[in-house]
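Could you show me just one protein sequence together with its fold in C-alpha cell form as a worked example?
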Amino acid sequence: MEDAGQKYSQLDEILLRHQGLLRSLHETIFSLNVGYAFGYALLIYISKNLFSLTSTTDLGYFFLRGAVRINNLLHLSSSIADLGWYPNPGSQVGAEVAFVVTLVGVALLVLFFLRLIAGPSTGRVVLGSVAGVTSLLTLPAFYLCALKLTWMAGPLADSTPFWQSLPPVIFAVELPCIGLVFWAGRKLSIPPVTTVTLFLLHYGLWTWVLWPTLYVYVQQRLFTPNVLLLIFPLSGIVWLLHRRGTHLNRPENSVTWNIGWNVTLAVAAVAALLIVWLPGKSYELFQPTDVKSLVIKMSRTSCRGSCPVYTITIHGDRHVDYVGQRFVKVRGAQTTIISDDQVGRLLRGFDQVRFFALEDRAFAWCFDTPRVSVGISVDGRSKEVSSDASCTGANRGAQAQFVRVASEIDTIVSSDQWVKCDGWCRE
C-alpha cells in the first residue's frame, strides 16, 4: 500500500509541475475527439449513400471531388480498382488525406473556440465536466445520428427498426448510468480504480461497436478512421489526468495564448477545409466571346443490352451533325439546324450545372449501364465530362443535373427522329 501511495504522490507531483502542458494536451485531444466524431459520422453518412440506389445527398460527390483534388496535388493518378473502363477518383491516398484534413480542420476550429473562452471560470467548466461528458458521448452520439439518417440506405439495409438495434440500446442504457456516475462524483469520493475501470468498460464496448468498416471506393476500405479511433479513448484518459490535476489543493497555473498564433491556426483550418470541400472555378458559357468557336459534342455509348450508340455535335453556327452507330433507327450521318435561342438555352443549362467545374472522377457508376459524355470547346477552352446515364447519385446532385442537361441536347435536336425505332432496333 505504501508503494501505491508513493506512486500516486509521484503522479500528483508530475501533474502539478506540468499543469500548463497538461491543459494544452487536454484541449488538443478534446478538439481532436470532436473533429473525429464529426468526420467519422460524415463518412458513415457518405459511405451508406454512395452505395444506395436512392441517395439523398451529394456529399459523396463533394468528398470524392476533394479526394481527386488531393491526388492531383500529390501527382497520384493510379486507379484504386481494376475498373479502368470508367473514370474513378484514382489513388486511395486522396480519400485518406481528405478525411484527415477534414478531421484536423474541424478540430482546429474547436481549439480556436476553446482559446477564445479560455477564462479561469469558463475554462474550468468547459474542460471539466463538459469535456468529460464530451469524451464519453460525442462519438457515440454522432455515430447514432448518422446511422439513423442512413438506416434504410444501401443494398443491405437492415429491416430491424433502428431503435431496436444494438447501438441505440447500449446508448440508452449507458446515458443514465453516466449521469449517475458524474452526479456521484460531485457528492462522493469515488476511488480512482473504480473510475478507470468504468471508463475502460465504456471505451472497450464502444470501440467494438464503432470499429469502422467504411467504403467510399469499390472493393477498398479506408484505414485512417481505424487508426485515429484511438483518439476516442485517449480523450477520456487525458481528461481523467486533467481532472486529477485540477482537484489537487494548488491553484492551476495561468495559461496565456498568443492571439496571432491562434488566428493563424483558425485560418489554416478554414483553408484546409476549403481545399477539400470548396467547389472548383467554372467558366461561363452563355454569350461566348467567339460563338463560332463553340462546339458541343454529346456521345452515348453501349450497355449490356440494346442501348442506342450515337453522337450529336452542335456547332456555334447552329448546324447539328448526327452520327448513328448501333441500336438506332438511322445509322450514319444526318444534319439539321437549331435556333440561336436553343443554343443559348443549352449554354444556360450547362452554366447552371457549372460544367467546367464538374469532376466526373467523383461521379457514381454502375456496371453494364449506358454512358453519356459531353465535350464543350469555346473561346480556346475545352472540357469533357462523362457520366453513367442510369446511376447518377443524388436526385438533385451535380451528376443528376448534368445528365438532365445532357438529355436537353436530345430534346432540342429532336434526336428521336433518328434514334427511336418503331420496333426492335437492329445492331
Observations:
- The first strand starts at residue 215 and ends at 217.
- The mean pLDDT is 84.
